[in-house]
UniProtKB/TrEMBL annotation:
Residues 131-208 are annotated as: Disordered. Residues 544-942 form the Glycoside hydrolase family 65 central catalytic domain. Residues 6-124 form the Carbohydrate kinase PfkB domain. This is Uncharacterized protein.
């Protein structure tokens, strides 16, 4: 190796792994399954994963002179790890790790260290020489933790680190020192914990050396050689992880979404083949705690996926659970929007077959989805029987805690065969009466007499329709089956009837290859607008994954439909409801897809009358939007939530999160800043903003004793606190986030008339009966809202209180609590113990911290000063430190908010939180509920951190505020964006941001960079230094 590389020193193991249904206990014999013999060892894993990321790596360690050394080294050889300095301990066996993985994923491990502890002088000398001769800029990873045998270090580790320190070499943390690290024998640690290389005054800087800086390793997901950051894959089949993988690799086009379930499998413990249509909700009645409840849920639609096969004459259809898997790779190509499975298997009869499956949900024609299977017998011939079906016997059962509700939303109304190769199935939702129609076309290639119309055998029951066709096959001669499906609903525009529309689309659809070509071309055009390019492969892969799923949920097709942005995507988590998560998405959309931001704002404006009605019913003025919304805009927050630990229903008063209105106003204002869309503001936006401001003015009441306005009985973003301990009713007084965002909204509503044509402003005031007295009251409230501050022994005085009385709650250390109670969420654990999170100073997610995330420090300070209070930089730091110590981070949004809030105040902590935010759902340890739906708000937040917090791009009404705070570890960033319909490109190099204006822009851009004001004319380029 010519350039710098990673030297990984430590354990090399031969692993023996099995799966068991129960944890191991002394004196018991358990039946095991899924025996495997991978390689392992903590530092062997570091080298292995470094090579996966394309970083040169050299392994330093010991193996025995036995056949087990080949098992231990085989995966390292395959990834081209340099093994020249792996030495052999004569007369000593290779280290062996015996691992039993229980059904809950926990591992019991027995480790015989053997050759790992058998170091002699020659081996130590060879290791030291390897480190001494390594090129400048290389990095050493070695074990510093006690070995299971009780030894605290090996002579080689100690000597090697001594040598490294004399060379100013980078010392890397042992992966086991990370709380997320895998135990010995796990080939894929979740977190490497590699520290940044320091800058050397004479040697190359960290940025120039190919060393992984705090690299992200996502569980058993692996990059694809040569594919860059655009592909992810699983290289082994894991039944217990299938539901999460189905969610991670789900495909959608903004209107339809289908989980990546294997087409041969039905819903079961391990699989869940769900298909969903944006905004297709149904409301059903159930009974909880003896009370009737109604719940509107996104509906799991009839499954179009079923496509399987068997050898003629056999009873069982193909399933991976019943064959020996020889080769397995499940790949998501994010650039092309394709999912592929490549499998070679041996069945119970000893026949070997190669299977390649590829699927898409068309981004070019949003009613179409397609599946192609290619089967190649390797050592046999015969006749294949193929089954293709449409199945309507589906329920909403993917979320365990929702299973006590009525989950059967569909009645099947039509099953028929049309033409030689088309099946049709129709269904209707039980309450909303939405008609759903699917039409499928299944064909085999090359054509065979067995595949003709006469050979098709039709099967149907009350809820499904299937066809069986046959194909003759021979060794090494592939047969290809393709299934094209069209899905329409009665909510689709420009159709007469869903069944006829689906039939026409299925008949006229091109073949799979042509459909794929159009789909891939559409994705290419989408990525040209959407991509944020990061230099580091691990970051690029994570942000590409996040952006990919955002675009599958909010696509150019979305504005055709009346839908919002679902917090967990178009899946069953949170019943597919709309919360406040677009707050994190709008900064990304505003500068790339403003038509999507506008569409999501229209989702709110169409429900303005419902919000007005809700406000009146609660005794308020203006518009009170629901915390959870679905089809009509009424409040959809369930009144109860099931605690899976205690089995009891818990009251859920989170509908009192009135701050949702401020989030809508914030999104509207920032959309207007980024686009200058005065037409939307005049026609819809101003009215929306005014009615939200009216609500805030009516919920704020004057305390005559203090002369301050107060907002009582609300819940902030932190959902662990629903009521004061012992209180008869839920809600808190003077939540800082709610009060300040209410003031922010009132200020924008007072300002909005400055941006409207005079005639429209007057007209709007007349229509809404908005007089001078009401505007004057808004101004008074915006200057006299109450904030509460308190003192803490550790963090001093002047701390902004989350709500009045927060500091009087009992202390609780969330980290220590999690160590004592790893079984679940803090609120669930406490309720199961007969206690409540309401009584403690512990927060689920960022609450006060959200103010620092949303509002630049200067804007937050100005807002507090407007109220007659003071918030100094020191107060802000101490306030953040106070709440960070009380934060459990049990919301996916929490670390996003912390990364943004700390970007300028504590860059090192911000970077750490950003790293953790990138792991959301990708890393198995950070994706407890990803199988139910992905955390799209957090995905959007990572793009916002890069764009708005690190690069400091903040659109204003007349120009852009540019205040970069670029972490050194971020590397080069590049993307394009638009502002007021003009186009720009931004690039970073180190801590310098370069902004280039398109020569075709219509006007110069005003840029405010701290105290510097600059005009960027069309075709010009300007550089800005990071703070």
């Amino acid at each position: 190796m010519d350039g710098p590389f990673i030297l990984s020193l430590g354990s090399i193991n031969a692993d023996f792994q099995v799966r068991v249904d129960e944890p191991l206990e002394s004196g018991r014999t358990l039946i095991a399954s899924d025996f495997s013999r991978p390689g392992g060892g903590k530092t062997a894993n570091v080298a292995f994963l470094a090579r996966r990321l394309g970083v040169p790596a050299c392994l330093l360690g010991r193996v025995g002179d036995d056949d087990l050394c080949e098992q231990a080294l085989a995966p390292l050889c395959a990834t081209e790890v340099d093994l020249r300095h792996v030495t052999t301990a004569r007369g000593c066996p290779t280290a062996v790790s015996m691992i039993a993985v229980s059904s809950d994923g926990k591992k019991s491990i027995l480790l015989a260290t053997n050759a790992n502890d058998a170091w002699d002088e020659d081996a130590i000398r060879d290791t030291v020489d390897a480190i001494t001769g390594a090129p400048d800029g290389s990095a050493l990873s070695s074990s510093r933790k006690p070995m299971p045998s009780g030894q605290h270090d090996t002579p080689a580790s100690s000597s090697s680190r001594d040598v490294a320190s004399t060379r100013d070499a980078t010392a890397l943390r042992d992966p086991a020192s990370s709380p997320d690290a895998a135990p010995p024998g796990d080939p894929s640690p979740a977190s490497n914990g590699i520290e940044p290389a320091p800058h050397s005054p004479t040697g190359p800087s960290a940025s120039s050396a190919p060393v992984i800086h705090d690299a992200l390793f996502f569980d058993d997901l692996c990059p694809i050689d040569g594919a860059g950051p655009t592909c992810l894959a699983f290289d082994h089949f894991d039944p217990d992880d299938e539901r999460r993988r189905e969610s991670l690799f789900s495909l959608g086009n903004g209107i339809l979404l289908t989980r990546a379930a294997a087409p041969e499998e039905r819903a079961s413990t391990h699989h869940y083949p769900g298909t969903y249509r944006a905004g297709c909700y149904d409301r059903l009645a159930s009974e909880v705690e003896g009370e009737p409840v109604q719940l509107e849920s996104l509906v799991n639609l009839p499954s179009w996926l079923p496509l399987t096969f068997r050898v003629k004459g056999e009873r069982a259809w193909f399933s991976l659970h019943h064959v020996e898997i020889l080769v397995y790779r499940h790949t998501l190509d994010m650039e092309a929007g394709l999912v592929t499975r490549d499998i070679t298997f041996r069945d119970l009869a000893g026949r070997s077959t190669r299977l390649r499956e590829q699927r898409l949900v068309s981004m070019a024609q949003h009613h179409l989805a397609a599946l192609q299977i290619e089967l190649t017998p390797l050592d046999w011939q015969g006749t294949l029987e193929i089954r293709s079906a449409l199945e309507g016997d589906v329920e909403n059962t993917n979320v365990q805690r929702f299973k006590r509700y009525d989950n059967r939303h569909l009645d099947v109304i039509t099953r028929e065969a049309r033409n030689p190769d088309i099946l049709v199935l129709g269904a209707r939702t039980r309450q909303s009466h939405i008609h759903i129609a699917l039409a499928s076309r299944t064909r085999a290639f090359p054509p065979s007499p067995w595949c003709g119309a006469a050979a098709r055998d039709l099967h149907q029951d009350d809820t499904s329709i299937a066809e069986h066709l046959q194909c003759d096959v021979a060794p090494e001669h592939p047969v290809r089956i393709e299934k094209i499906v069209a899905l329409f609903t009665s909510r689709d525009p420009a159709i007469s009837e869903p069944t006829e529309a689906a039939l026409l689309a299925a008949r006229g659809a091109p073949d799979f290859d042509a459909l794929r070509a159009a789909h891939v071309a559409t994705w290419a055009r989408l990525w040209a607008r959407a991509c944020i390019t990061l230099e580091r492969p691990d970051h690029a892969r994570a942000t590409r994954f996040h952006t990919f799923h955002l675009l599958q949920t909010a696509s150019p097709h979305t504005p055709q439909f009346d839908v919002g942005f679902p917090a967990r995507g178009w899946q069953e988590a949170y019943h597919g409801h709309i919360f406040w998560d677009e707050l994190f998405l709008f900064p990304y959309l505003d500068l790339r897809f403003p038509e999507l931001s506008r569409a999501f704002l229209h989702y709110r404006t169409r429900r303005l009358d419902e919000a007005r009605l809700s406000a009146r019913q609660h005794g308020y003025d203006g518009a009170m939007f629901p915390w959870r919304s679905a089809s009509t805009g009424r409040e959809e927050t369930p009144r109860f939530q099931l605690n899976l630990l205690s089995g009891r229903w818990m009251n859920d008063p989170t509908r009192l999160q009135r701050h949702i209105g401020a989030a809508i106003a914030y999104n509207l204002w920032n959309y207007f800043n980024a686009t200058g869309d005065t037409d939307f503001l005049a026609d819809h936006g101003a009215e929306l903003l005014i009615e939200i401001a009216r609500f805030w003015a009516s919920i704020a009441h004057l305390d005559a004793t203090t002369g301050r306005y107060e907002i009582r009985g609300v819940i902030g973003p932190d959902e662990y606190h629903n009521a004061y301990p012992g209180a008869a009713s839920p809600g808190f007084d003077n939540n800082a986030y709610t009060n300040l965002m209410a003031v922010w909204t009132l200020c924008r509503a007072l300002e909005v008339f400055d941006h409207l044509p005079v005639a429209r402003g007057k007209e709007l005031r007349d229509i809404l009966r908005l007089g001078d007295d009401e505007l004057a009251r808004w101004d008074r409230i915006s200057r006299r809202m109450r904030l509460v501050f308190h003192r803490d022994p550790e963090h001093g005085d002047g701390l902004l209180s989350q709500f009045e009385g927060f500091e009087r709650l009992k202390p609780l250390d969330p980290r220590a609590f999690a160590e004592r109670h790893p079984e679940g969420r803090v609120d669930w654990v406490l309720e199961a113990m007969g206690d409540t999170a309401d009584a403690y100073q512990v927060t689920k997610q960022a609450d006060v911290i959200m103010l620092f995330y949303l509002l630049p420090c200067g804007e937050l300070t100005d807002l507090v000063n407007r109220l007659g209070y003071e918030l100094t930089d020191d107060q802000g730091r101490r306030t953040l430190a106070y709440y960070l110590a009380r934060l459990s981070h049990e919301s996916s949004l929490s670390k996003v908010a912390c990364a943004g809030a700390l970007a300028r105040i504590d860059p090192a902590a911000s970077w750490d939180y950003f790293q953790q935010a990138l792991r959301n759902d990708l890393d198995r340890a950070h994706s407890k509920s990803a199988c139910e739906g992905l955390h799209l708000g957090a995905f959007a937040g990572t793009t916002d951190i890069v764009q708005r917090h690190y690069l400091g791009i903040r659109p204003q009404t007349r120009g852009i505020r540019l205040d970069p705070a670029i972490p050194e570890q971020l590397g080069c960033v590049r993307f394009a964006f638009q502002y007021h319909r003009d186009h720009f490109e931004v690039t970073t190099h180190g801590t310098t941001l370069t902004l280039r204006a398109s020569p075709e822009n219509r006007a110069a851009l005003k840029i405010v960079n701290r105290t510097r004001l600059e005009l960027l004319r069309p075709g010009d380029t300007a550089d800005f230094e990071s703070a």
